[in-house]
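Private note to self, pasted from the team thread so I don't lose it. Backbone tokens:
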């Protein structure tokens, strides 16, 4: 049974500057996180074993890392892949996002926790839509600006603004701590992620995005970035707090 999406406000007032064609455009950073649970089947033992080999032998997945997995190879071993995509497509339609997944780039990702970060310096023109495929391993997707945690289980679905700080931390933890991810602990999460175009009217409306909030600054910039009160800031990887750039 699919659970309905929920909306959770985020309190930071931020501005994202992103490439729109050959120009930088400004927008607010969305104050909405959409989350729900979709019914997806457990990956096969063969596929799970392949993912484990990939994350433990073929790549060096350190605590806090988020890395790309080979999706094409996984699909050859994943007969239920189309069923998972369809479940997400059905869920996004309930949010007023018709067929947006079909036209969006998709990737398979792995993380061993995730240090706090934002993706607005690279993906400012997008919202992330994630579907988590791993079982509950005691980890939460954490949005520190409102201390909102989403327990990660198989079928957890989330849509959020790339400019919003986020991390994957141990449940009950107050921040990201490398010591929470011991080498002998199974804490790897596998997930599908789509880049939804933030300028798509349905995506912008679903996340309550206001565009062209600071056109004068946009004209002066030549790279994507997120500013807080007009100042460059970075995200503390351990606490998730915004910090001024030295």
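Design output:
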């Amino acid at each position: 049974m699919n659970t309905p999406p929920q909306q959770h406000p985020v309190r930071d007032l931020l501005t994202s500057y992103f490439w729109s064609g050959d120009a930088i455009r400004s927008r607010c950073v969305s104050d909405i996180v959409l989350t729900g649970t979709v019914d997806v089947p457990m990956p096969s033992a063969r596929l799970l074993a392949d993912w484990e080999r990939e994350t433990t032998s073929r790549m060096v997945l350190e605590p806090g890392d988020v890395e790309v997995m080979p999706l094409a190879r996984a699909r050859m071993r994943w007969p239920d892949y189309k069923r998972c995509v369809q479940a997400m497509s059905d869920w996004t339609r309930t949010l007023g996002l018709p067929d947006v997944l079909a036209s969006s780039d998709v990737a398979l990702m792995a993380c061993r926790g995730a240090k706090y970060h934002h993706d607005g310096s690279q993906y400012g023109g997008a919202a992330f839509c994630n579907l988590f495929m791993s079982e509950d391993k005691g980890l939460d997707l954490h949005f520190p600006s409102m201390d909102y945690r989403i327990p990660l289980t198989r079928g957890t679905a989330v849509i959020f603004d790339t400019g919003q700080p986020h991390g994957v931390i141990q449940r009950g933890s107050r921040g990201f701590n490398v010591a929470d991810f011991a080498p002998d602990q199974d804490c790897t999460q596998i997930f599908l992620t789509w880049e939804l175009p933030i300028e798509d009217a349905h995506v912008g409306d679903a996340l309550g995005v206001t565009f062209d909030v600071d056109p004068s600054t946009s004209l002066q910039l030549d790279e994507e970035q997120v500013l807080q009160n007009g100042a460059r800031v970075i995200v503390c990887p351990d606490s998730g707090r915004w910090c001024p750039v030295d």
